[in-house]
Amino acid sequence: MTGEIIGVFQPSHEEYQQFGNNMHNMKAWAEIYLLSLSDVLVTSAWSTFGYVAQGLGGLKPWILYKTDDKTIPNPPCRRDLSMEPCFHFPPTYDCQAKVKFDAGSLFPYLRHCEDLNWGVKLVTDRKEL
User: Fold this and answer.
1) pLDDT at res. 9
2) What's the 3-state SS for 17-57?
3) Which residue ranges run through the membrane (predicted)?
């Protein structure tokens, strides 16, 4: 934000989750932590690393939308609703009432995610509602 350019080098290029590999987990944590130190964060849609980094750093990120059939979305990115991560698969069925419900419309501080219309996230500022 001040015009300074800072280079951050990724400690891993492992490309996929390696369950049970603690060295892999430490590298992943280092990458998430480095992202959380940003003044401004731009993440790709559905980015787990981005979601965790934004919450850890208290950042309200910009989300870069995925292309659809090689078509660039308009706008290509948008400011996220809050620093809270997106809950990709919220409950959608009320077992007692035996009906489906929209989790994003239940509470005034719960909204659908910007990058995943069935996911939900907490929104803490009433001005954003």
Assistant:
1) 67
2) CCCCCHHHHHHHHHHHHHHHCCCCCEEECCCHHHHHHHHHH
3) none
